[in-house]
Amino acid sequence: MILGRQFLRGDLLPDHHLPRPDGHGVRLPLSSSQREIWFAQLRNGNSAAYRIGEYLEIHGPVQARLLDAALRRAVAESEPLNVRFGTEAGVPWQQLDTVPDWEFPVIDVSHEPDPREAAECWMSENLRQPVDIEQGPLFSYALFRLTPHRSALYHSFHHIVIDATGGGLVMRRVAELYTAMVAGTPAPESSFGSLRLLLERDAAYQSSPERAADRAYWAERLVDRPDPARLGRPAPAEFPPVVLKASGQLAEAETLRLRAAARAAGVHWSITLIAATAAYTYRLTGARDVVLGLPVTARTDTALRALPGMLANVVPLRLQVSADTRVTDLLRQASREARQALRHQRYRCVDLVRDLRLPDAGRDFIGAQVNVMSFGYDFTFAGHPVTAHNLSNGIVDDLAVMAYDRSDGTGLRIDLNAPAGPYTDADLAGHHAGFMRLLDAFCDDSDPERTVGGADLLSARERSRVLIEWNDTAREVPDRTLVELLAAQAASSPDRVALIADQGDQRLTYAELHTAAHRLARLLAARGAAPGQCVAVALPRCPDLVVTLLAVLFTGAAYLPLDPEQPAERLGQMLTDAAPALVVSRSDVTAADALAPSGHAPWLLLDSHPAADHSGPPGPRSGTPTAAPAARPEDPAYLIYTSGSTGTPKGVLVPHRAIVNRLLWMQDTYHLTGRDRVLQKTSIGFDVSVWELFWPLISGAALVLARPGGHRDPDYLARVIPEQGITTLHFVPSVLDAFLAAPGAARCPGLRQVFSSGEALPRATAERFHALLPQAALHNLYGPTEAAVDVTHHQCVPGDPGPVPIGRPVWNTRLYVLDAALRPCAPGMPGELYLAGVQLACGYHGRPALTADRFPTDPFGHLFGAPGSRMYRTGDLARWLPDGSVEYLGRTDDQVKLRGVRIELGEVETALRALPGIAQAAATVVDEQLIGYVTRSATDGAPPGGLDLTEVRGRLALVLPEPMVPSDIVVLDTLPTQAGGKLNRKALPALRPLPTAAGAHPPSDTHEARLAGLFGEILGIDDVSGDADFFRLGGHSLLATRLMARIREVFGTELPIRTLFEAPTVAQLAKHLRSPEQAPARTGRAAAGAFAPWDRLDPLLSLRAEGSGPPLFCVHPGSGLGGAYAGLLRHLGPSRPVHALQARGLSAPSEAAPASVEEMAADYVRRIRTVRPSGPYHLLGWSFGGLVAHAMATRLQTEGEDVGVLAVLDAYPDNRRILSHRTELTEQQWLLLLDGIDGLNGIDSLNGIDSLNGIDGIDGLRGRDGRLPEDTGDGLRAASAPPADAAAGTGALMAALRRMGLPAQLFQDASASPLLDVTRHNVTLLSRFTPQVFRGDLLLFTADEPVPGHSADPAHTPRSWQPHVDGTVHVNGVPAQHFHLLHPRPLARIGPVLADALTTAEHVLEAQK
């Protein structure tokens, strides 16, 4: 691209042009401003980020050699450019050292298609190159020939040596020297001050009274500073290397208008830019207390103004602004603030950060910057004028308004710079357009009363688009009630199945359902249910629930859903607030026992009234109306409570008209038919349950009720969806993630549409969904309880980039994205989301003030024929996308959503403060966990000693729903506060100690060992101790459900999830499992599959006996034990039976051991045929077991059976190299070996006992001359200890192994240990075995991490299997070492691959039949 390039060098010039600076070779300290950049560069590690640059467009011909001479002389005169940097003992220094020879390329780009673009491309690339500040040079120059009569002089510097003001001084001097050289006249002497002067003045200031006064001013001005108002997304941890830019130019006439308006207000024109930036920040963030950054030269006198070095600083400007602030008042306020700041501009910003003790080097201190670059470029190069073009100003933290006043008659250039990451090019372009409109409004001085909120930031076209076009959702909807919709469907399909309960498989037709509901409605009406009243319903998910909800609606009353799983105290608060006419429940509901005596309202227990029994004799036909006044469309249909910031939940009343619009829109858009089945799994306390319950019942589809608690169990959902033929269901995104991770998620072919709402849907989750369920559509919905469930919709498309939008408005609904002045935001600009239209709730029950605050008058209602109507303020940040859909950006307040649950942090904090012993409380979300922070109370009522955190969580569980109970409670001396005394919520996460899985107490028995394994499996961690706390390790309510499901599967005991909140550690929870009076009896499916895998030594151990698919048979490793395979169960799905083969010698040590691997394989084939008489057979083996599985597969094939999957975990056919070095170990050495031997790695390691220090199993035994390596560790060397010590060590080892939970008979004594005998014997068999050829493919999992201290056997490669397999060896690497392959994390990689292979093999075999 570059044409005609040459370099000019200093050796072409006479020496008198290169005066050496005074003090050459002397090491000097850094100035305070230089130290800032030095340490910032060390911290950020990107020296290119601190380069600044621009180019001067010279309008006229240039003599390159004279310009080169002028440049070199000006550089030589500028002492700060002639330094290099270094450190000594960690202290930086700089040394004056003239750079005599540096490149000055002259590049001809005049023949390029776009010369300017070619030149700027070169410059940008140069600016991206890091500069070594210890070598230099710390500047770059280049000259570009754009045309014969136009050139571009590029100059850039490292910010540590010069600032923009200094760069302007150098360029002015270059022009002066060049002009003199062209004219042939002597140039005036340089007026530059010396570097020594700069340093002396800086040092003098640091110890001066002036600095003390400056510090006092800033301390007072910022004592109660606010958080900075940011216009972009959260900043990344590191400065992004790319700075984005949006440019604009005010013509000279517009610039004169700006200056005139400023003069009329009595301020400088730059103040108008500052005030406009503060106003723009307020409009888009709502921040009334705005802190801006003002870059300043920090040159406060004539001597400093002649210094070309680095002195620049940034000072904060603090302004108060609101929608009704007059523009003239804001201008005057900004002028006063700027004058004060300039008086104190030498006090370094970094010192302010230190004084205020700000974290992260003060990056979160100042918001947008206003950089007024009013450097005069009115000089010429030998009479040729110049135009300056800025390229880089170095680091940009946030939005920066850059104003360039070149005083050259071209007007004012205004750029917006911003870091990539928090901003995009589109964001910046939108901000630039909006800011320029606001600035234009500020320049209009025709109305002295104009206000900040009165300016419009949109063009007329944009305003019409966001208000009218994108809200064109009007649709004629019949003015009917939900009851009428339900009745119409029941009349049209009376004999169709309406309701199916998965638990018990109960079914009701539409006629039966409505008959039962009308019968119950008469009873309810007789008890006071009527329009204007509400009836509370406290029932689990069952047919009674659906019948009762319909019955309440048939009476004209609104229903109040009470989830029996919520704490009784919270339910009591709802009943007190709602004052229902009646509470409907059953005697077996725990909430009924707890609340009935409280006297909140009359109770009706369904199981105490024959008239309420829907299984009784038929009553009136479904179409027969209940003898009760009918509800009107404007009457409430339901009352649902949500979290309240004041500490108590608030009730939302939703009218029939709203929910009818919502349901009819959904039916018109997504089309349920009589062939569809909708799964109802959401708690009735959440509004998603409303459409789950009623959409199918107004559409002729079947409503399927998930079992109580089933919504928390991904494995259950993966099973019930295909079993019940579910076509439609809903997931909160976090639950969808868990469901997609379940082994059976991909086996739901009948699923055709899934709806997701409740929290932001990650794009990665959507892509995973499409990959696993390509036949199903995924729809992202959004809406608060205050607007009839959902108000926006978006269909996810595979491969779409960026965040998943919340979409477009539904029928008769409007979305407004408004700024703080309640004016519409332009597309792409963030604002608060407001909702309007027919779906709005009536308001908050019994709270008129809150209703008025959150449901203000709609200022745009008149545009839609609804003047005076209301809108709802969501508190959500959002922005319009170019296609008219909306993107969710976050919250404007302290409300959070976790796993779909709306949580007001204030309610959690109120509950914490109500506990004894707690004085102050705060809560926040850290890494998707709700964490509480408390301080101790000093009152006499506080309990002695420290807080019992388990008790605290247990007490909270009595008043808060499970998702609102903090996972961890951190005790602090004081809560962090901002300067003004407000809680500093952002500082809370750093105050939480990092939890660890390893604790002081290992699992003490079988129960604890197994529980620790389950903790690790669910949380994805290893080595869980007995005192490890599930929630502190990262557990939450969703993971807690999975843990309880695994406990039910492994222990056969059903524990309520609340037990985990009361007993969150391994040891505490184990007590509940040991205690018969505390743990419910084993019943149903859990009991049938209950086992303790480490307790049983059956040769054929059923890990999961039930299931419809062909079983997987897992062959034990060298230890002979198969219990470690239990970790596979969760990955293979509930329909896959799994059995483990264990060595016969463990349970029957007196029987003769097999004489060969082939004999062992034959025995095992006989055993698996007792479970499955004919194929296909699926086989899996780990280590030694992999070779036995291969032998079983070849034997089965000789017997004429099909083998579907043969899978091997890190086993290889050639073991001669290892086994040739096998030594005869002592009993103690073998015991130590069992610390890591195959099959025992799922249990805790031997604690407090020396181990083999890296020899973790059979494959680790290597040595020369039949001896173990010299570095095997102290544990093995103990074998050579005196006999007494060796015996003591052996006894301790055996005791530790017994504590693992293995049966005692395996460790009778050192001379009679079946486990040791089996292990020794299997090693012997392995040394004699050569595999035959298997006809088929081999699925091989390799352990890709080395066993510590041992190199891999070169014979152990996947290729070594090929002679023993006539198909393909499919290799899957696992990032783990051999002895950890059945740990939770490796199993998470192995399990899904194995599950897919099993399914594929069965399809292939079926197709071959």
Automatic annotation (TrEMBL):
<keyword id="KW-0597">Phosphoprotein</keyword>
<dbReference type="InterPro" id="IPR001242">
    <property type="entry name" value="Condensation_dom"/>
</dbReference>
<dbReference type="GO" id="GO:0005829">
    <property type="term" value="C:cytosol"/>
</dbReference>
<dbReference type="InterPro" id="IPR020802">
    <property type="entry name" value="TesA-like"/>
</dbReference>
<feature type="compositionally biased region" description="Low complexity">
    <location>
        <begin position="621"/>
        <end position="631"/>
    </location>
</feature>
<protein>
    <submittedName>
        <fullName>Non-ribosomal peptide synthetase</fullName>
    </submittedName>
</protein>
<dbReference type="GO" id="GO:0072330">
    <property type="term" value="P:monocarboxylic acid biosynthetic process"/>
</dbReference>
<feature type="domain" description="Carrier">
    <location>
        <begin position="1002"/>
        <end position="1077"/>
    </location>
</feature>
<feature type="region of interest" description="Disordered">
    <location>
        <begin position="1265"/>
        <end position="1284"/>
    </location>
</feature>
<keyword id="KW-0596">Phosphopantetheine</keyword>
<dbReference type="InterPro" id="IPR036736">
    <property type="entry name" value="ACP-like_sf"/>
</dbReference>
<dbReference type="InterPro" id="IPR001031">
    <property type="entry name" value="Thioesterase"/>
</dbReference>
<dbReference type="InterPro" id="IPR020806">
    <property type="entry name" value="PKS_PP-bd"/>
</dbReference>
<dbReference type="GO" id="GO:0043041">
    <property type="term" value="P:amino acid activation for nonribosomal peptide biosynthetic process"/>
</dbReference>
<dbReference type="InterPro" id="IPR029058">
    <property type="entry name" value="AB_hydrolase_fold"/>
</dbReference>
<dbReference type="Pfam" id="PF00975">
    <property type="entry name" value="Thioesterase"/>
</dbReference>
<dbReference type="InterPro" id="IPR009081">
    <property type="entry name" value="PP-bd_ACP"/>
</dbReference>
<dbReference type="GO" id="GO:0031177">
    <property type="term" value="F:phosphopantetheine binding"/>
</dbReference>
<feature type="compositionally biased region" description="Low complexity">
    <location>
        <begin position="1275"/>
        <end position="1284"/>
    </location>
</feature>
<feature type="region of interest" description="Disordered">
    <location>
        <begin position="607"/>
        <end position="631"/>
    </location>
</feature>
<dbReference type="Pfam" id="PF00550">
    <property type="entry name" value="PP-binding"/>
</dbReference>
<dbReference type="Pfam" id="PF00501">
    <property type="entry name" value="AMP-binding"/>
</dbReference>
<dbReference type="GO" id="GO:0008610">
    <property type="term" value="P:lipid biosynthetic process"/>
</dbReference>
<dbReference type="InterPro" id="IPR045851">
    <property type="entry name" value="AMP-bd_C_sf"/>
</dbReference>
<dbReference type="Pfam" id="PF00668">
    <property type="entry name" value="Condensation"/>
</dbReference>
<dbReference type="GO" id="GO:0009366">
    <property type="term" value="C:enterobactin synthetase complex"/>
</dbReference>
<dbReference type="GO" id="GO:0047527">
    <property type="term" value="F:2,3-dihydroxybenzoate-serine ligase activity"/>
</dbReference>
<comment type="similarity">
    <text>Belongs to the ATP-dependent AMP-binding enzyme family.</text>
</comment>
<dbReference type="InterPro" id="IPR020845">
    <property type="entry name" value="AMP-binding_CS"/>
</dbReference>
<dbReference type="InterPro" id="IPR010071">
    <property type="entry name" value="AA_adenyl_dom"/>
</dbReference>
<dbReference type="InterPro" id="IPR000873">
    <property type="entry name" value="AMP-dep_synth/lig_dom"/>
</dbReference>
<dbReference type="GO" id="GO:0009239">
    <property type="term" value="P:enterobactin biosynthetic process"/>
</dbReference>
<dbReference type="InterPro" id="IPR023213">
    <property type="entry name" value="CAT-like_dom_sf"/>
</dbReference>
